[in-house]
Amino acid sequence: MNRKAASALLIFAVIVAFGIFPAPSSANDQILSVDAQSAILMNMNTGKVLYAQNPDDHIQPASLTKVLSLYLVHEAIRDGKTSMAAHVKVSRRAMKCEGSRMFLKRGQRVHLDDLVKGMAIVSGNDASIAAAEHIGGNVPQFVKEMNVKAAKLGMQDSHFMNPNGLPAKGQYTTARDIMILSHAYLRDFSESLEVHSMPDYKFGRRVMHNHNRLIRKDESVDGLKTGFVRAAGFHIVATAKRDNVRLIAVVMGARSISVRDRETIRLLEEGFKMTQREPLEKKTRPA
Questions:
Q1: 220 is an active site residue
Q2: Gap between the Cα atoms of 30 and 25, Å rounded
Q3: Is 105 one of the annotated active-site residues of the chain?
Q4: Is 123 considered catalytic here?
Q5: Which fold, 26-284?
């Protein structure tokens, strides 16, 4: 062995001996990156963030906005201000919504329960407007309540301009804020997962399929919401439960549905691996 090789070997031995190469200790070390603008993963049981990639980048929320609208709907029901059986009259404004719809008709009377399913499963923009008018009296008042609630929940980097997430100037959020919202929604209204996990929904003669394809791909995934706007890309907030551990993953700004779904499953899988290692790591630590 020449002098240069021996010197390099000695340096390497010193580095290893003194632990200058740290062992991977978080999901960031193992996942490296998610193929999307931003992402965040949380263990809902502990509140621990397991992975974060550009979690505070501003981005249009798209239909993830509906999670906040649904929070306010469920809150109004819980507080006795309305009920799932309430009849809601569809306005012209609701009927004229573009994008994902339930195809509501002006003057039609619809149970609030149907609107909730329309928002959660098929991302109905028309259902969101109808629900907002029912809960808030009118859309501007409901949007005001949305922003007040967002602030109370700790969403410090978000502002909403409508109840459905259609593109609007001044409307933005972050992956971290969506995670905060989703955690609060699942904590306060866990029964909502019964709707979010439905693969299909029949309204009138139409059978509509859940936009969240992950509930069909992974049996542990039971919610929550997808979104898309051309300027921001494809979003999802997904929750999955295995062995009493519930994770929440938020992926925003993916370039396609397939990329979004693939990266979200990868994120969840890595998160569950981490939670499986945690008890072993605690046991092996010196007292």
A1: no
A2: 8
A3: no
A4: yes
A5: Beta-lactamase (3.40.710)
